[in-house]
Task: structure prediction
Amino acid sequence: MADAKHDLFFSRVLLMLQKLSREGSANIFDLADEYDVDDRTIRRDVKRLHFFPIEIKKNIVTIVDGYSIEHSKLQDIEFLIAELALSSIEGIDTSLDKHLHSIRAKLSHPLFFNPYKIKADAYEKINMDSELLNKIEDAIKKRNVSKVYSNQLVSTVHPYKVISFDGFWYLLAKDTEDDKIKTYLIASIEEFRASSEVYASQYVNIDEILENVHTAWFEDGNSFEVKVKIKSEIAHYFTLKNHLSSQVILKENSDGSIIVSFNVSSDEDVDNLIKSWLPHIEVIKPERLRKKMISELENYVKDLKKITI
Result:
């Protein structure tokens, strides 16, 4: 049977979801006052609900447009019972935890959009209450200079944020050795030690930096243009939405094709995007990337021809 702590948690998050569904956003400190907790508790609640389309930006908790608990096929109390039931068996058998995560994702997404359906991204399972993440979160808030032990390397860093790229979780931090912002895969961090030293309070707008970060492979301080030709067969997929935040349509050709530009920091920022749309996409510049793509494709075809079935 769920204890009082669980009851308070699920009652609070259910009320918060209802409020966000109605109003779209809420100040994190107002939520803390309303539910008689501190802002850190609200932040942790949002982290635990990472399978919901909810985020915090500049102390404002927001919900994706169109999302509403009111559209769920479950009544409020049914939703609460389902969550309490899942919570009561969580941790008993770690082999089942991934299935619990999957059930929660299915409850929170398909049922909440009717007649619309938004396909949920698969996220790496992560324990938001783990000792490692609590240490990282505390160091970020206190601006503590810290050491990251990962893959037999030790890095002294200024920790900024825990972020997700393609469903995997990373620590975004500045490496003091070369003064560049980098990503550290959370799953690969063997140890994290925060010192009592506080790094300088020079203003670093992480949200602004993240606007131009497309993958975990970004290179701080590096920037170049990638120009591609999108054939008419798939051009509408690029006119309907930006596949990267830096996407700009430069030209619409008479044959229905378009010329698109991306501003990136590494080849990996566009590598998967380009390859996923082959053969209907062509790299125009830089020439170095064009030649690299051609070489990789030629080697792929050679290797494929060697395979006997």
